[in-house]
Design brief:
alpha+beta; Alpha-Beta Plaits; 4-stranded antiparallel sheet; 3 helices; 4 strands; 26% helix
């Protein structure tokens, strides 16, 4: 399982729907083409995962904060249903590791 380095970076997740009629979704990896925007905001794409139900896509980014990812996805034209962040320390606590 991926975890953020021990810096001021956080794991940020973006959830978007899979369009049922076409099976399409806006691939979060297309954001990587906007290197300038990623660099300016210090955002790095990590991966994208299809939900078990097959109707949602969760994109994972590493960024200084959630607002950095919001700026990048807004500029890329991605419409997200939800965006949330988790620090590496919080992830360790939920796993029972201190």
């Amino acid at each position: 399982m991926y975890s953020a380095p021990a810096t001021n970076m956080v794991d940020v997740y973006v959830e978007q729907p899979l369009i049922q009629s076409t099976g399409d979704w806006i691939d979060c990896r297309t954001i990587e083409e906007s290197v300038t925007c990623l660099d300016i905001n210090r955002v790095r794409f990590v991966d994208a995962t299809l939900s078990r139900s097959g109707d949602r896509v969760i994109c994972h980014f590493l960024a200084p904060d959630i607002e950095s990812v919001r700026r990048v996805i807004r500029r890329a034209g991605i419409c997200a249903d939800s965006i949330w962040a988790e620090t590496a320390a919080a992830a360790q606590r939920t796993d029972g590791n201190e």
